[in-house]
Amino acid sequence: MKTPSRKFWLLLLKIGGTLYILYLLVGFFVVPKVVDHVLEDRISEQLDRSITLEEASFNPFTLSLELIGLKVEDDDGQVFVEVGRLFSNPQLFPILTRRVSVKEFALSDTIIRLKLETDGTLNIDQLLQVPEPEGEEEPSDRFHFSVGLIDIANVSLEIADYTRTLPLEETIGPVTFVAEGLRSDPNIDSPYDFVAKLGEQTTIKWKGDVSVNPVASSGAFSIENLDISKAKPFWHDMLRAEIAGLFSVSGTYGVRLDAEKELAFLKEGSVVLSGFSLDDPDEETQVDFEEIRIDGIEADWPENRVVVESVTVSKPNALVVRHEAGDVLTPMRDESTVVEANSDTEDSGATALVLDALVKSLSIDAGTVQVIDRAISSDPEISVTDIDLKASNIAPFDSSSEAQFDLGFLVNGSGATNVSAAANIPNQTVKGTFALDGLDLATFQNYVALYANAKIESGQLTLNVEYEANVPDSVFDVTANVDLEELNVKELNGGPVFEATSISVKSAVYDSEGVTIGRVEVDHPVASISMDEEGLSLGRLAKSEPGETVEVPEGNEEEPTEIPISISIKEVAIVEGKTDFVDSTLSPAFRSSITGFNLDVKKCLLGEG
């Protein structure tokens, strides 16, 4: 066999060198021109959108393609996408093993603009119209894919929604996203790191592992200092109020979605809403608080279980206004749409969600509620301050669990109140105590004036109650002790009506048998009665304005329900009583006083029997 000559090898080397140089020339000079032509002419024509490219380059050594200054316009001529730099480094040899492989994909200095027009059309609707495949592809025929590195930096998403009365315009970015070793092979986890800015103070972070087959992910996420006032377009049509506050959320999570098993969980969850305010200046409705913090959130699906370690509300304040017509003012717009259930949708056959929820600890610190009642001409105000609530073991769906509550507050600067309760929320049963110490009745004078031509000059109310209730069975057992100190009631013109050093009601019991009072004692009462041309003063105290007539729709007439009740008072005592009587219809006026009288009555039965 004849050995190839030296000339043959030189010829083969020249041909190979020429082809290699030709390959380099095509790669460096021809491919960029082809890419530019395909983008600006063919793809632009298919999308019916203008596409321009500043520069394209191809490296034949690494098979990498780089695009600089790519712009895609909307059909209205506005820029839809601006790409500063796009870099891709595909690998050819893995195709032989039915794998699409990209060593690196990078995108930087890019702006994407999404716009939802008033008619509901999105500016990318045309791009999303992908033809349906003619037949379902068999798993054995599918390619796997892998991406060695995804590097996205300084990418922003500009969103505009013009379907709302108040348009939404917001920018998400710059966004940074890095993922390594992303593969479609089964049970391969790939690490990722996502960071995005929303405005100057909001940061979104998302870091962990992701799997494509099956779809699964686990890791940690956080949103820091999200300004909720920027979401105003979402509630503008329903609320007149201005809402402000900073929202933060964080936690670790896991999710898996496949045909065999679907699950999701959340651990170490935390939600914080700080500096919240809801202000409706037109109607004076306002709610604000320093902070709401929810810590230790754990959720598990499909177990449908949620456990919260603690909920803390710091310095909440609320203003409630009732106007002249008797309605409570709210920040809702009058034209807001209320969606009501109808017979066609109520029974949809859907399975009700059964949720196992538990809040281990709930606290409200230094709360205040102010009520302005304009239904009364003098605009009386009631303020509940120093609200302090401590609760534990709140399980609204667990009939075997009993929640504990301890609530304290002041009413109009006095009346230190404490309420403690043990409640089974699903069974609607509760038992506990209620204590009110030293409530100044004079602060409620405007409400007294609604029903009586009199005013309370002074009076301190103390109340201690033990109660137990079963709401479904309408069973209520209440035991109370009432003390009223230094009561002084006068006519509106300043004339005396009644005063007493103290009035006490001991061992008052309300149950299914009626009301039983152990003892009523009135100490040093003084009653003042007068007679003039208008009649007896006692008769003028009660107001007797005609009430409104309420029309009952036809077919809804019901007979009034009589609730029989008996009142039994075991002892009544009056100590050192006094009565002053003046009859000014006589000339001269007749005056009489009865002093130093005492009364002791044993067993008084009122009502049935």
Written overview of the protein:
- The protein is mostly beta strands and 609 residues long.
- It has 3 domains: 14-123 and 144-197, no CATH class; 257-331 and 355-413, no CATH class; 428-537 and 566-609, no CATH class.
- Helices cover 10% and strands 58% of the residues.
- The protein has helices at 6-47, 232-235, 343-346, 445-451, 537-541, and strands at 51-59, 64-73, 79-91, 99-116, 144-161, 168-183, 190-198, 202-211, 215-227, 242-257, 262-280, 285-301, 305-314, 317-322, 356-373, 381-394, 403-411, 414-424, 429-440, 454-470, 475-491, 496-511, 514-523, 526-532, 535-536, 566-583, 590-607.
- It has a 27-stranded mixed beta sheet that branches.
- A hairpin with a 7-residue loop joins strand 3 (79-91) and strand 4.
- The termini are far apart.
- Residues 335-351 and 546-553 have low confidence and may be disordered.
Task: Please outline the helices and strands.
Blueprint: H1 6-47, E1 51-59, E2 64-73, E3 79-91, E4 99-116, E5 144-161, E6 168-183, E7 190-198, E8 202-211, E9 215-227, H2 232-235, E10 242-257, E11 262-280, E12 285-301, E13 305-314, E14 317-322, H3 343-346, E15 356-373, E16 381-394, E17 403-411, E18 414-424, E19 429-440, H4 445-451, E20 454-470, E21 475-491, E22 496-511, E23 514-523, E24 526-532, E25 535-536, H5 537-541, E26 566-583, E27 590-607
Parallel strand pairs: 4-5, 13-15, 14-15, 23-26, 24-26
Antiparallel strand pairs: 1-2, 2-3, 3-4, 5-6, 6-7, 7-8, 8-9, 9-10, 10-11, 11-12, 12-13, 12-14, 15-16, 16-17, 17-18, 18-19, 19-20, 20-21, 21-22, 22-23, 22-24, 24-25, 26-27
